[in-house]
Amino acid sequence: MEKSILNLKELVENLEEDKRDLFKRFYEFYVEEGKFILPDKIKDWARKRFGECEKQKIVRITNKFTYESTLFNELRAKRPIQAVSKEDIFNMIKETEGDFFCDPLNKTPSDVFGRIEGKYCITASNIAKYDYLHAVIVFKKHDPFYFDEEYIKDYLEVAWRWFLKANEYDKRAEYPFFMWNCLWKAGASIVHGHAQALISQKPYGKQLFLTKVRDEYKKIYNSEYLQDLFKVHLTLGLGAEVNNKKLMFYLTPVKEKEVIILSEDFIDTADILSRILKLYYKLGVRSFNVGIFLPKLGKKDIILIRVVDRGDPMARTSDIGGMEIYSGTSVVASDPFKLAEIFKK
Question: Could you tell me the residue range of the domain that residue 163 belongs to?
């Protein structure tokens, strides 16, 4: 049987009983058929563009603990994941050379406790802050598509040094968060490659919620929520272990091609982040978000990394609409089973 989100029911039914029970502990789902009748005047157009579309298989899957919920449409999921190239993006990158980030020492503010510099990046204080301790990690390369491990490792090392320096400045700030938005579709206001580092007195909302989920899960099942979640993905062929990091091609992605990584060390995630972002690039992804949830400074815990494709930067439509913002259920086109297969190849 082909491994596809569209065949989720059969894939789950074929699992061994203990693995099927673990899946059902985490997830509930349905597979239904959406139907409509095409007027004669648009039949040829619709079938040429969408194929046989009068009946469409819809899969909705929901995490019972976090309430993450995703809708997969048969028409969208059947589409192959293909590599694309957008020359317009490269022209725009070239046209923006010479911006403020190309001269950070003279054209960006520094934090009151100074800058942190690495081989491939340097920090600046964010001029329009999200939180009161918020730095921009400015890449020395203007082109944002440098994904070699040594570059990413340097970005993470500089971020870590900034976290420690910011904590020296304000001992109350103990909860670090790393974020990388690539291009405007992902929320970046500047084309020049950069990431962001924040440290605050309390974890941000989603980390607080996940901590609560993990604590409650531990009380009920005497097991670690994230490790069991990984087991579910591994059982279905949606998980992989690479150099002591655990990958999940996520069953309830927030948007396209979402990958979740579990790691024990912040800097050590550079190798797997490099591999994922290079894979994204080969698949035509030019705009993405990376979020890294770190434990409180001085505390040892699982580090959670989320990476997601934000869609074609040259498209006029947004990848996020009312379903994502208000219903709490994402509508996703890419099949996590196909993404896992490409990664493993």
Answer: 82-345
